[in-house]
Amino acid sequence: MTAIISRASVAAGHDGRAEIEVELTYDNGGTSTISLDEEACTASLDRAGIGSIDELVGQPWSIVLPALDRRHAHD
Amino acid sequence: MLDLVIRNGLIVDGSGLPGRRGDVSVLDGKVVAVGGRAGAARREIDASGKVVAPGFIDPHTHYDAQLCFDPFAFPAIEHGVTTVVPGNCSLSLAPLRTDQRDAFSRMFRLIEEMPEAAFDAGVDWRWGEGFGEWVDALAGNIALNVAPLVGHSVLRMYVMGAEAQQRIATGDEIAAMADLLRRCLDAGAVGMSTSFVDIDETYRPVPSRWAGPEELDALAAVLGEYDRVLQIVHEFFDADLTVARVEQLAELSLRHGITTTLSPLFHSDANNHGVAKVMAAVEAARERGAAVWPQVQTRPIDISFTLDQRSLMLLTMPSWWKVASIGDHAEKLAAVTAQRDALVAEMNALEQRPNAGLGAGGFVVREVVNERNRSFVGRSIDDISRQLGTSYGDTVVDLALDEELGTWFIRESVGHDNSTVVGELLANPLVHLGASDGGAHVGSFSTFGDTGYLFSEFVRNTKSLSIEAAVKKITLDPATIWGLAGRGLLAPGFAADVVVFDADLIGRGPEVASTDFPGNGIRWIRRQEGIDTVIVNGQVTWTAAGGYVENARAGQIATR
Lengths: 75, 560
Prior knowledge:
Radius of gyration of chain A: 12 Å
Strand content of chain A: 25-35%
Helix content of chain B: 25-40%
Low-confidence stretches of chain A: 70-75
Helix content of chain A: 10-25%
Shape of chain A: globular
Largest sheet of chain A: 3 strands, antiparallel
Largest sheet of chain B: 9 strands, mixed
Structural class of chain A: alpha+beta
Oligomer: heterodimer
Mean pLDDT of chain A: 77
Structural class of chain B: alpha/beta
Mean pLDDT of chain B: 94
Strand order of the largest sheet of chain A: 1-2-3
Number of strands of chain B: 23
Distance between the termini of chain B: 28 Å
Number of helices of chain A: 2
């Protein structure tokens, strides 16, 4: 199943810090939300060559994988 | 003779009932009479034209470290806060073995954004290892009341050592954690905190996240023995996961008879249905008789940034993102100068960005490099632009270039900022007002002034709550939820924690830099507005006229 980023916006994060909230929409119409802190978001965008949160919309969800990999690299 | 009388105020007693005019009498640290005309007292305070209310209770703080070197938790008290709950989100300074201090400190400093220099200079570990010893060290040297949580992560570290971040616990280890939790509760812990989201400085989940469900259940059972509270920080960014946590808390609450609270619950215009979904789950839990309290903060989310570094703010301006990505500073400056017109235009275009509320006119100058620009600090770009006759973009770029891009700006209210919706949420009787995070994130933003903002924004501006309802939300409600007997109400026999304030003026001051922490770093604070007097256990601790009473140490461990 392929999920597409359907929304990306600045939102409240843990403890009141600003983060990027990314909504993923799946083929079956289901959605989920993940939150990327500044460092994680920067890592993802760098990898994808993107320079704006607006450009995230319409991209496959895998574009934010580097951020998630980085977060759990030491699990 | 009475010790203290507060005369002629509008008494808003914390019950939520309409205020009434009269006197409040205090003797031996307790309220002895409310209403009517009091007799003579050693000290009298004229509260004519002002509100007299119970001291405010802040249930979600991280003052653990600050209280080690600052008995006032400056500037919490001047905002009317007389009781705080530190130790949230699975992290407390005890119990902790000596050889675990470095690992814990790194975790605490990262998650709560406490500068290393301040933490190391201020936390001397004089109490040793035990939770009771830590509480003893605080008692007698605090100017406000403390109801400390013990952190699940440190319970795990104490029992399991480094393996606390490697595996689930054995039955024996769970039993050892349960015994340790009992000792902490005996010593005055108001409950236990746990985290389902936090990571340490190496991106590993914090110890509490390695617990299996049987471990949390066993610890919740201990909380049930003592009728104490379970606090969690949940997957706040996902409504479905949050609903699952609400249901998990409901099960724990019903099985063990405990009160639970989850924080934070934020509103987002982009994800409005998420809050509704979570609140529906909370309502369903309450209908079953479970005590599940979502914590909602009053203050909106801010972003601080410079034009010198990549940040979330610059992600809304692709051209700025590109120049900020240039590593060499001189090259970056040259690029900004060369592309100035395009960069200014992009910044001005922020005003047209739909639903983002990020317009440059709302930027506020937070800190400057050059003293000649000092007068701009605290002023909005809209205000400065009107004075200079320039566009918003020109004003920002000219100032930043004058300081080689070193100027710090803040854009306030970029999230959790729909005051109508947030006001309705705060007024909901199923919502617990909290999540201030007092004492944390000191280098990023101010965690002070949320109580003042409650009145200025949600009582005076949106009129979401009456003044009586707002006072109840931060006094009797938290005292009841957290089991703080004898606090949160102005009634005979209750602790004389009192705040006198001007209902037309109470608010929060602008965010300003402060250098008062050890280690010479800068932190961000907000000073009070509209507060007249703060009394802790009958002792006048702060006044608008005289500031802090230096030797005031009337704070108590609120659970002892």
